[in-house]
Amino acid sequence: MNASPYLTLHELVKKARQKLNHDSWDYIVGGAESETTVRRNRLALDSIAFRPRVLRDVSQIDATTNFLGQRLRLPIVLAPIGGLELFAPEGGNAAAGAAQAFGVSHMLSSVCEPGLEAVAQAAPAALRLFQLYARGDADWVDAMAERAIAAGYGAFCLTVDTAYYSRRERDLAKRHARSGNMPQREFQARLTWSDVARLKARFAIPLVLKGIATAEDATLALEHGVDIIYLSNHGGRQLDHGRGTMDILPEIVAAVGGRAPIIIDGGFNRGTDIVKALAAGASLVGLGRMQCIGLAADGQAGLVRLLEILEQEIHICLGLLGVNSLAGLDASYLHPAPPVGSGETLGAFPLLTLEEKSFY
Ligand code: FNR
Fold first, then answer.
1. DSSP code of 6?
2. Which of 126, 196, 245, 354 would disulfide-bridge 100, Cβ 3.0–4.6 Å?
3. Catalytic pick from 22, 234, 315, 335?
4. Can you give the CATH number for the domain in which 136 is found?
5. Which of 46, 81, 165 to mutate to test the pocket of ligand 1 (most atoms within 8 A of CB)?
6. Which domain, by its residues, includes 90?
7. Residue nearest to atom 20 of ligand 1 (CA)
8. Quick one: pLDDT at residue 142?
9. Is 224 among the domain residues?
10. Is the pLDDT score of 180 beyond 70?
């Protein structure tokens, strides 16, 4: 018997909107400049329909997966989010705690409180990955890798799509200062493939590059020994006029050729979205804004509830596709289709607009 008051994802979205002030809400849902990339993420997902198969025994559904040697209840990573403490007072502890309680993986951002050692202590059993923004020279980056290893993180991730902080016009228009002016930001712009080679040569911890968005860079990453390819356009928060990540996924899958797991994020709001990426060849799906929404609605419990609802959606989707487990999914279950929505960040929840159109 589940006592949670939330039966649908859009109820969590609505609660988060009620609890957050306008600045924090815009920080979550907003993107760069015209927010074209944000919309393309949703449109790319929305432009895929399913090809369901029937009359297979689907009485048992297993949506678990193995990742980095750990069993995950769903193929999900809570994407790195800077400043989670804006949405839930416990910040990264609440997200990692939800990952541990439910059984998914968590990637901690280096710009999230209370920091990597404290979060490791808060969720020792979770599969925890650590993501870094370079805010210092090579020695500084290496020292951060050493701290992540010492704190038991399962992988070290460099985010590589943030050489410059984009113009987030929702913030600029309100004169709302954000981390764009952060000191030491130039170190991020100076990163090159030689930094990747140095990290691989010095540390045994699996290395992830987050923000790969072309087959060429996926190939280069593999040539440099990168262990996990993280396909992302930062949820449309960095380069505007990028492609939707689900449009990019096929070329990354072809370039990687099964040699490394692929994580994808960008616009994944629903269980059906997640199933589409898995069918197209991704290993894990990252949740960015939805994670913020779960935490803002009701802290760690809100995020666990969000994952429970996503699990129900994924199980039902798999069963209706005629598939018992993730291993049974492939691209034959997908078909191009005209998009239904117009690409709003939370356009997967049309019932929200019925109740209160101003949420968008
Ligand atoms: C982010 N993202 C991000 N990425 C990263 O590598 N380090 C970070 O500190 C942050 N911070 C951050 C804050 C907020 C509020 C958001 C919404 C996003 C990007 C994030 O990891 C992920 O790539 C996108 O959010 C995925 O898109 P969706 O799921 O938000 O549509």
1. -
2. 126
3. 234
4. 3.20.20.70
5. 81
6. 9-48+67-315
7. 288
8. 98
9. yes
10. no
Q: Which two tokens stand for residue 159?
A: 């985010």
Q: Let me know if 234 is a catalytic residue.
A: yes
**Entry pTM:** 0.97
Q: Is the separation of the CB atoms in 237 and 159 below 8 Å?
A: no
Q: How many structural domains is the chain composed of?
A: 1
Amino acid at the residue 272: T
Q: Report if residue 332 sits inside a domain.
A: no
Q: How many residues does the chain have?
A: 360
> How far apart are the C-alpha atoms of 156 and 146, rounded to whole Å?
10
Lookup result for tokens 């019925």: 354
Provide mean pLDDT across the span 65-83. 98
Dihedral angle sign, alpha carbons of residues 313, 319, 320, 321: positive
Structural domain includes residue 81: yes
183 pLDDT above the threshold of 80: no
Average pLDDT over residues 271-286: 98
Residue 280 falls inside a structural domain? yes
Q: What pLDDT is attached to residue 287?
A: 98
Residue 358: its pLDDT value, please? 43
Instruction: Name the band, by pLDDT with cuts 50, 70 and 90, for residue 352.
Output: confident
- 345 contacts: CB under 8 Å, gap ≥ 6: 29, 30, 31, 35, 38, 42, 267, 289, 360
For residues 160-189, give the mean pLDDT.
86
- pLDDT at res. 254: 98
Looking at the CA of residue 267, tell me the nearest atom of ligand 1: 31
Show the 3-state SS of 132-198: ECCCCCHHHHHHHHHHHHHCCCCCEEEECCCCCCCCCHHHHHCCCCCHHHCCCCHHHHCCCHHHHHH
Question: pLDDT > 70: what percent of the chain?
Answer: 96
CA of 322 from ligand 1 middle (Å) equals 33
Ligand 1 binding residues, C-beta < 6 A: 27-28, 41, 79-82, 109, 111, 131, 159, 210, 232, 234-235, 237, 265-268, 286-289, 292
